Amino acid sequence: MSFAADFFFPKRCVGCGIFGVYICFYCEKKLRIRLTDTCIYCKKKSLYGLTHPECLPRSGVDGLMAIFNYDTFLKKIILQIKYRLATEVWREFAKVIRPEWVWKVRIYRSLAPTALLLPVPLHPSKERIRGFNQADLLGRFFSQYLPYPTVQSVLKIKKTPAQATLASPKKRRRNIQASFAVVNPSEIKGKEYIIIDDVVTTGATCREIAAILKKNGAAKVYALTLGHG
């Protein structure tokens, strides 16, 4: 950030408002590490967030892993990144995330040794406005621990209201239906994917993408997110 930007729009901690940083030392301690992952469908505990066999639909998500619990503080951070277009916030936040918090994601090296990282795409009009896709930023971050290629096998083809603006899970599922399309169906068959997103709440977006990938022959589809709530 330039000197002029710092002067007119000074950094303030997302948590407490102190000047000079986006995430201060004291607010960093507010981050709640997700110690126990859960099945994306029944919400009950599951080792590494793997979907319970009895819960897994034919075209479902094989597992979901998150780094943090999605609470008020993490929500503030993500809103700053997404809606104030503040990639500076993300860069500072990424430095706060300790390697030991993320180490568990390396289990995917065994679960999906040939996986491809798939950041959830934005609709082109929304990405033009923001100038970036936060899922792409996360994909680059997670690639430090999962040295897999990042691909854009899926496009967002329908412009929809933000999922966060819809209260009920049912509305979120309807909102996201038929919103995505695969780029090249012939390249999907037999592949393993890890969907990258910032937050999962109802899981509607991950489920929709997993469904379209599996209907085109994907072997396994996992999801990896910053927060889960």
Task: Walk me through what this model shows.
There is one protein chain. With 229 residues, this protein is α/β, with parallel strands linked by helices. The protein has a single domain (33-69, 97-228), classed as Rossmann fold, CATH 3.40.50. It has helices at residues 3-8, 25-28, 72-83, 87-96, 99-102, 108-111, 124-130, 134-142, 169-176, 204-215, and strands spanning 63-69, 116-119, 154-156, 180-182, 192-200, 220-228. The strands form two sheets. A four-stranded parallel β-sheet has the order 1-6-5-2. Strands 3-4 form a two-stranded antiparallel ribbon. Strand 5, helix 10 (204-215) and strand 6 form a beta-alpha-beta unit. Helix 3 runs antiparallel to helix 4 (87-96). The chain is globular. The protein starts with a helix and ends with a strand. The relative contact order is 0.17.
Structure summarized in a few sentences:
The protein is an alpha/beta fold. Helix content is 33%, strand content 15%. It has helices spanning 3-8, 25-28, 72-83, 87-96, 99-102, 108-111, 124-130, 134-142, 169-176, 204-215, and strands at 63-69, 116-119, 154-156, 180-182, 192-200, 220-228.
Arithmetic mean of pLDDT: 91
Number of helices: 10
Largest sheet: 4 strands, parallel
| Percent of residues in helices | 25-40%
What does the overall shape look like?
globular
**CATH secondary-structure class:** Alpha Beta
In percent, how much strand structure appears in the residues? 15-25%
What CATH architecture do you see?
3-Layer(aba) Sandwich
Strand order of the largest sheet: 1-6-5-2
Distance from N terminus to C terminus (CA atoms, Å) equals 32 Å
Number of strands: 6
Instruction: Enumerate the spans where pLDDT stays under 50 for 5 or more consecutive residues.
Output: 1-5
Rg is: 18 Å
Question: Which sequence of SSEs, written as H and E, runs from N to C?
Answer: HHEHHHHEHHEHEEHE
> Class by helix and strand content?
alpha/beta
